[in-house]
Every structure is written in structure tokens, then in C-alpha cells.
């Protein structure tokens, strides 16, 4: 697929402490205790190797990105910078961030560029889209790693 937009993005997350109550039946209102319980759970299921929460246990707090137009000619590709920003505002909910991300993605169908996107960012975005009932068509029609 020949894309006409380049979308370079990164998400920032925090542990989804509300999920801990459903996962482990640990009941507390203290965020630090909930984070500790989430880490204990992941250490337990990995045999003590990794306390970092799996993708489904992350809540998105920011999505930052660069958008460029892609131009092609006989010598290759060039890019025109169109936008550099973080989505939403300080008051945006996670649902609003996810909705606006997928609204752009589903309409523009850009070429994606990220660091560890396939291993972390994209799975987190898919899980959060499922949580909020947001259509994530664009991320289910990805090409191979180079397209």
C-alpha cells in the first residue's frame, strides 16, 4: 500500500490500577498499594522474572505524534512536516485520546513509525480501543513490518 501520510507516534502510560481489583480481588483505594499488587501479580505469573505489567494493564495518558506528507518522485521519497503535537488536552480522558487517535488513523491510513510500537504501543492501543468500544480498523490492516 502506498501511503500519502507518515505518522510518527509514541504513547505514555500509567498502570491501570482499577484493573487490579478485577484481576486479583485486592481491594484498596491506595494507588501505591494497587501498583505494588499489580507488580506482585506479574512477578508471580512470570516466575519472578518481570514485574512490568502486560500491555492490557496500562492506561494511556498521552499520545504524541508527528504527521508528514509523503512525496514520491524518481529519486525516492521526501517528507513535508504538517503537525507536531500531543493529542487532546490536559483534561482529555483516556477514551477521548483513544477515540481521536483512531478517528485520524481510520481516515488517513498513514504509514506508522514508532519505537517498540508493535511490541507495546499498538497492543495497548488495541486493548484500550476494545475497552471503550472504539473501532480500530486501521491497526488490524497493517502490512508487514516494512510497509
What is the level-2 CATH architecture name of the largest domain? 2-Layer Sandwich
Q: Determine and state the CATH class of the largest domain.
A: Alpha Beta
Total domain units: 2
The CA-CA distance between the termini, in Å, is 7 Å
Q: How does the major sheet shape up?
A: 4 strands, mixed
Q: How many H/I helices?
A: 5
Please bin the fraction of helical residues. Answer: 25-40%
Q: Give the structural class.
A: alpha+beta
Looking at CATH, the homologous superfamily of the largest domain is: Ribonuclease H-like superfamily/Ribonuclease H
Strand content: 25-35%
- Low-confidence stretches are none
Strand order of the largest sheet: 3-2-1-4
How does this model look, in words?
The protein has 147 residues and is of the alpha+beta class. The chain has 2 domains: 5-14 and 55-140, Ribonuclease H-like superfamily/Ribonuclease H (Nucleotidyltransferase, domain 5, 2-Layer Sandwich), CATH 3.30.420.10; 17-45, no CATH class. It has 5 helices and 4 strands; from the N terminus they run E-H-H-E-E-H-E-H-H. The mean pLDDT is 91.
What is the strand and helix layout of this fold?
Layout: E1 5-15, H1 17-24, H2 31-45, E2 58-73, E3 76-86, H3 94-108, E4 111-113, H4 117-132, H5 137-140
Parallel strand pairs: 1-4
Antiparallel strand pairs: 1-2, 2-3
Helix pairs in contact: 1-2, 3-4
Comma- or semicolon-separated keywords:
39% helix, elongated, Nucleotidyltransferase, domain 5, 4-stranded mixed beta sheet, 4 strands, 147 residues, alpha+beta
Brief description of this entry?
With 147 residues, the chain is an alpha+beta fold.
Amino acid at each position: 500500500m502506498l501511503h500519502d501520510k507518515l505518522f510518527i507516534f509514541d504513547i505514555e502510560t500509567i498502570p491501570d490500577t482499577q484493573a487490579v481489583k478485577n484481576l486479583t480481588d485486592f481491594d484498596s483505594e491506595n494507588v501505591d498499594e494497587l501498583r505494588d499488587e499489580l507488580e506482585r501479580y506479574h512477578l508471580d505469573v512470570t516466575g519472578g522474572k518481570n514485574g512490568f505489567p502486560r500491555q492490557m494493564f496500562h492506561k494511556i495518558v498521552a499520545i504524541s505524534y508527528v504527521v508528514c506528507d509523503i512525496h514520491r518522485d524518481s529519486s525516492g521519497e521526501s517528507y513535508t512536516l504538517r503537525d507536531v503535537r500531543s493529542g487532546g488536552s490536559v483534561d482529555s480522558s483516556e477514551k477521548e485520546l483513544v477515540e481521536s487517535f483512531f478517528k485520524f488513523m481510520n481516515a488517513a491510513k498513514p504509514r506508522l513509525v514508532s519505537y517498540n510500537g508493535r511490541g507495546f504501543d499498538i497492543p495497548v492501543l488495541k486493548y484500550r480501543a476494545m475497552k471503550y468500544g472504539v473501532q480500530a480498523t486501521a491497526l488490524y490492516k497493517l502490512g508487514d513490518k516494512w510497509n
